[in-house]
Amino acid sequence: MSPVTPSALNKKAGQRGRIILLDGMNMVRRIYAACSRHSEHNALEQTLSRCTQTLNRVVKQHRPTHALCVFDGDQPNWRRDLLANYKISRKGMPSALKLGLEQIQEAFWQMGVDSLLSESDEADDLIATLSSKSCHHADVIIISTDHGFGQLLSPQVHQWDCFARQFLDINFYQQRYQLHPHQLPLFNALVGSNSHDIKGIKGVGAKTASSLLNRYTTIDALLRADDIPEKISLKLHEQQEKLHTNFKILTYRTEIPLGFSMSDIRYQRASHD
């Protein structure tokens, strides 16, 4: 499969719309962490400057017809109901950044990109919903380094790493995990995910999980298989409830009510750019 390139997508720009969906906290927190390592007293000011520079570079390269920056809510969500320790070890947003976040969002607004904030929905699910609803009539480019978005990739949905300045396409994921990216939720359900505080199936490591998923693509198929080593099969059956829960948590929702139309996020480049 040929790698995705910006020039290849730009050739289709006149045929379909193009929507960029920015994973807000993925970008902002990484930039803030880098800035605060060098100088804490003006980290927020530097973060604001670098965020606007990054956004400007993204819109110049990808030429969107629509754009939206999506931020996580602060309240516990449905995943915490399924797993009490979900993301329990993740550090909270630094207080200085939390106070300055509105300033960053305002700067994005001045650049023609609105922000979507939800009290209880995760940005992952909001972006997944937007991608699902938009990809029938537009190309979607998700701006994030989060490998969880690999599950959304299709000929119409792409992912761009704005730090490495490259597409994270199907070839990227296959080389990284030896799996199609659509299999990553089940792969991580098996091996666990430290970033989500999700424990995997005891006795199943990455090598075993990859081997299994190269033959079986669903939980039901894994549980029905009669050629899996008995020791592994027993572990899967004994922990199947955990496996189903993990998979549900790691699969993004695509049917969240949004309450706005695509015309509301049409990108209008700031006149001074």
Automatic annotation (TrEMBL):
<dbReference type="GO" id="GO:0008409">
    <property type="term" value="F:5'-3' exonuclease activity"/>
</dbReference>
<dbReference type="GO" id="GO:0033567">
    <property type="term" value="P:DNA replication, Okazaki fragment processing"/>
</dbReference>
<dbReference type="Pfam" id="PF01367">
    <property type="entry name" value="5_3_exonuc"/>
</dbReference>
<feature type="domain" description="5'-3' exonuclease">
    <location>
        <begin position="17"/>
        <end position="268"/>
    </location>
</feature>
<dbReference type="Pfam" id="PF02739">
    <property type="entry name" value="5_3_exonuc_N"/>
</dbReference>
<keyword id="KW-0378">Hydrolase</keyword>
<dbReference type="GO" id="GO:0017108">
    <property type="term" value="F:5'-flap endonuclease activity"/>
</dbReference>
<keyword id="KW-0238">DNA-binding</keyword>
<keyword id="KW-0255">Endonuclease</keyword>
<dbReference type="InterPro" id="IPR008918">
    <property type="entry name" value="HhH2"/>
</dbReference>
<keyword id="KW-0540">Nuclease</keyword>
<protein>
    <submittedName>
        <fullName>Flap endonuclease Xni</fullName>
    </submittedName>
</protein>
<dbReference type="InterPro" id="IPR020045">
    <property type="entry name" value="DNA_polI_H3TH"/>
</dbReference>
<dbReference type="InterPro" id="IPR020046">
    <property type="entry name" value="5-3_exonucl_a-hlix_arch_N"/>
</dbReference>
<dbReference type="InterPro" id="IPR029060">
    <property type="entry name" value="PIN-like_dom_sf"/>
</dbReference>
<dbReference type="InterPro" id="IPR002421">
    <property type="entry name" value="5-3_exonuclease"/>
</dbReference>
<dbReference type="GO" id="GO:0003677">
    <property type="term" value="F:DNA binding"/>
</dbReference>
<dbReference type="InterPro" id="IPR038969">
    <property type="entry name" value="FEN"/>
</dbReference>
<dbReference type="InterPro" id="IPR036279">
    <property type="entry name" value="5-3_exonuclease_C_sf"/>
</dbReference>
